[in-house]
Design brief:
alpha+beta, 7 helices, 2 domains, 9 strands
């Protein structure tokens, strides 16, 4: 299968305009699209990453967008129903970017830098080349790589084991401040001070989060 990695930018895009504004990342998988009563509908499911307040603002602003028909949000997982009038849809874009011959190998990363990052595959190289050409000409596209490979991994929306908000906050802070770097940039005592909690509380929640998350990660190797 031919697999391409590319980045592109959609002016006025529902997601990336806001991921850039609020400095969050949204890993989104397009589930389906359909036409009904002179409108196009798109169903997207994804995982939102970022600071809690930034994520809240991102979701609240999405809800105000007239193109959003429905939105469900729980534990950073968003399911979004988007609708466009026929006049708002670029038919050529629709046929190119939603060609059934194309497969999303990974969710689309709607990045905090305001760009989309795609990993897309197809057995029909010409269909993939057409998408790359359209992205380059119309959407500031950049081809990062294109190879013919036998896939040994495939990523849809995979939910991590459920951990508490406190555990999530602490393990994300540990990652951000270099606790898992080599050499380690911060110790638990310093991390606890930054978070304004006791050493024992920080250590306990960090270990519980690691115990919950690590087995799930190792199964995917």
């Amino acid at each position: 299968m031919w697999v391409a990695k590319l980045s592109l930018k959609h002016e006025g895009d529902i997601f990336t305009e806001r991921t850039r504004k609020y400095k969050v990342n949204f890993h989104a998988y397009p589930l389906t699209h359909y036409e009904k009563k002179e409108k196009y509908y798109f169903v997207v499911m994804g995982i939102l990453e970022g600071e809690e307040e930034s994520k809240r603002q991102f979701i609240n602003e999405l809800k105000k967008d007239k193109r959003i028909k429905e939105i469900d949000a729980k534990n950073d997982v968003l399911t979004v129903l988007i609708n466009y009038s026929l006049k708002e849809i670029n038919q050529a874009d629709l046929e190119t970017f939603y060609d059934p011959a194309l497969i999303h190998i990974e969710p689309v990363l709607n990045s905090e830098d305001g760009r989309e990052y795609w990993v897309i595959g197809s057995y029909e190289k010409e269909k993939l080349s057409k998408l790359i050409d359209s992205a380059t000409r119309l959407h500031e596209g950049q081809l990062l790589s294109m190879v013919n490979v036998k896939l040994d991994n495939f990523s849809l929306i995979s939910l991590t084991p459920k951990i508490s908000e406190q555990q999530k906050k602490i393990i994300l802070a540990a990652f951000k401040h270099g606790y898992y770097s080599y050499p380690r940039k911060i110790e638990i005592k310093e991390l606890a001070k930054i978070l304004g909690i006791s050493y024992s509380t920080c250590q306990e929640h960090l270990r519980k989060a690691e115990i919950a998350l690590l087995p799930n990660m190792l199964k995917k190797l």
